[in-house]
Design goal:
This protein is mainly α and about 100 residues long. The protein has a domain of about 60 residues. It contains 5 helices and no strands.
């Protein structure tokens, strides 16, 4: 059985792109929804807890520049792995 099928990778990429977009919309100060999430902090707190591991990795590697770009790359990698696990569970071969 092939673990890396085209369908699983496409599901993982789609999930990672959509989850990264939602993460940016909720957490970023440049987001169009930033003013809303200043007063409704439960969504921002939830997403902040979900992306805790990429920020810890960012604190450990301490980059001199490109902090935001590296953090969003790590967030994308996290959501890609989550999407891949979801695709492994949901895309089983039918025999």
């Amino acid at each position: 059985m092939k673990i890396f099928s085209r369908f699983r990778v496409s599901i993982s990429l789609t999930f990672a792109l959509l989850a990264s977009l939602v993460t940016w919309l909720i957490l970023s100060e440049n987001s169009p929804f930033d003013h809303y999430f200043l007063y409704h902090v439960s969504g921002r707190n939830l997403v902040g807890r979900l992306v805790f591991v990429p920020y810890v990795i960012l604190l450990l590697i301490r980059p001199a520049f490109w902090d935001d770009q590296i953090s969003y790359a790590l967030i994308f990698a996290q959501w890609f792995l989550v999407g891949f696990v979801i695709s492994l569970v949901s895309c089983r071969r039918r025999t």
